[in-house]
Design brief:
Blueprint lengths: L3 E3 L16 E3 L31 E8 L6 H9 L17 E6 L3 E7 L9 H14 L4 E7 L6 H10 L6 E6 L15 H10 L6 E3 L8 H11 L1 E2 L8 E6 H16 L9 E9 L4 E9 L2 H8 L4 H18 L3 E9 L7 H6 L7
Parallel strand pairs: 2-13, 3-5, 3-6, 6-7, 7-8, 12-13
Antiparallel strand pairs: 1-10, 3-9, 4-5, 11-12
Length: 355
């Protein structure tokens, strides 16, 4: 079913599926992108949304912070399934992505936002505007910071933005596992003081955790629920995201580009799922990888097509875990000059200002 994703407690979301599948990685000079921009409205399956019991809480929680502080990894861990891509490259997240965690006591809808930073092109401006818009449209903000280093100017800039909102804020110190080993067990160690100085003037609660090891996430979850008000189920309890599967497919392909290519390529890459054909025994996917320059196209294809084959093979394994079945993935590379600078191109590729 190509639609929103259901919870899958049987698979390890971070593992690699052992199901084998074919892959044909090609490159062509022309790709018809027009056919790929059909409606991306998620199709919620006809699952009954139950009536919330007395005292049930619900709400939207915005994950806000600088680029590469672990917001996407955190959301994946909280919802128990990989729905947001992660990589060491900053600005991995480009769209507002919602992850849903439902417990007997509450339903939390996490909104993973692009990292707030100084924009250098039209795409950057769109990403930052979308993140800033999310601050005022959620019920709680979780301000995620990198607890393995001292607070920087970027953290203080975001703190200043958040100080102007009436939305409740929790300051979350991620990456506690990367703090110096001899200080890791301290409730508050020297690295934490710089963040405490940001939280104290606003009276923001401060909590410490590791999205990678899950240490402290149970406490974080309880603190988030405490900030929510009583409310209804917004989604069926077994849903983990409201995004369509083809969006997640495109992100899983882009993730492998980020992980496998040089630094000059990732920021210039967009992925469009041209076609998805579901058959009884296999899902066939046609995807276009868009770059800005011919030299980047050459890097993505690689010698003898080796890089494109590696990207496709790794992405296919992740997508097979997603769809729980065999996948045939066909990749193309297309040059779309200066697409990050053009609002028209950004809209075609699915990047729109939210709100």
């Amino acid at each position: 079913m190509i639609g929103s994703l259901k919870a899958n407690n049987c698979a390890n979301q971070y593992g690699v599926s052992t199901v084998s599948g074919d892959i044909n990685t090609l490159h062509k000079d022309t790709v018809n992108l027009e056919e790929s921009f059909e409606s991306a409205t998620p199709m919620l399956e006809a699952t009954t949304i139950p009536v919330a019991p007395p005292g049930f809480k619900s709400g939207f929680i915005g994950l806000v912070g600088r680029p590469n502080v672990g917001k996407s990894t955190l959301m994946n861990q909280l919802v128990g399934q990989k729905i947001a891509i992660t990589s060491p490259v900053a600005q991995t997240t480009r769209n507002l992505l919602r992850g849903i965690l439902t417990t007997p006591e509450a339903q939390m809808i996490f909104v993973d936002t692009p990292g707030i930073h100084k924009p250098h092109h039209q795409l950057g401006e769109v990403l930052v505007k979308n993140a800033q818009s999310a601050i005022n449209s959620v019920d709680v903000v979780l301000f995620v910071v990198d607890g393995s280093v001292e607070a920087g100017e970027g953290d203080r800039f975001i703190a200043n933005l958040l100080s102007r909102t009436q939305t409740p804020v929790i300051l979350g110190l991620n990456k506690s596992d990367q703090q110096p080993p001899h200080q890791r067990l301290q409730t508050v160690h020297p690295l934490d003081h710089s963040y405490a100085s940001i939280a104290a003037p606003q009276d923001w609660p401060l909590t410490k955790f590791s999205a990678l090891t899950t240490d402290g996430l149970a406490l974080l979850q309880r603190q988030l629920v405490e900030q929510l008000e009583t409310g209804p189920y917004y989604y069926p309890p077994d849903l983990v995201t409201d995004q369509p599967e083809r969006f997640i497919m495109g992100e899983l392909i882009r993730e492998q580009v980020l992980l496998l290519t040089r630094e000059e390529v990732p920021y210039s890459v967009a992925v469009v799922i041209e076609r998805v054909d579901e058959e009884p025994t296999i899902t066939r996917i046609l995807a276009a990888i868009c770059v800005e320059r011919p030299s980047q196209k050459g890097i993505l294809i690689g010698k003898g097509g080796g890089m494109l084959k590696a990207i496709g093979s790794a992405a296919r394994q992740q997508i097979q875990t997603l769809v729980a079945g065999k996948v045939y993935l066909e990749l193309f590379v297309k040059v779309r000059a200066k697409w990050r600078q053009s609002r028209t191109r950004l809209a075609e590729l699915g990047y729109r200002v939210e709100g």
